Amino acid sequence: MITLVMKYRRKNSISIKSFIEEFGEEFSEHVKEKLMELDSRTFLTRKEFENRLDIKHVEHLKYDCSNGLANSGTAKQMKEYSYGELEVVEGALYLSEKSFESKEFVEAPGIDDIYSALGSEEMIEDNGKQLKKLDENNIDYVVDTILSICPEVSQKYIDIVKGMVERSNNR
């Protein structure tokens, strides 16, 4: 008799829809609906913690982040933007003070303003990060502001996805 053992491997990149399915049991319907507005432009990535996810653009767009150093002969530093970091603690949704940053990623301009604008009544610290609670009272502002900063997807991207969907429907 052969026994198959499969190890659970968490996905490091997930859609907003999958995020809601995985963590959103206690989110209100309005919070879920508002988060879904991010789904067509963004996806989520996680590194160290299963419940902490960074918001990234689906096209992996890169921006010059050399802060004027390019004019001094230094090579351009092209990085992908992160549009915030979500964390779920005990069923509640939070926005982190800072997004994950590395050689490849930097927080998009304006994202820190979103965190700063949120009230501090329901603020916690988790795994070394300051977090502010997202709920019915502030989710519209947070998502609308992220959407105002995060670019629309390109027509080329839309055409590629449309072609993939058509091919999968023809099987």
UniProtKB/TrEMBL annotation:
The identity of this protein, by name, is: Uncharacterized protein
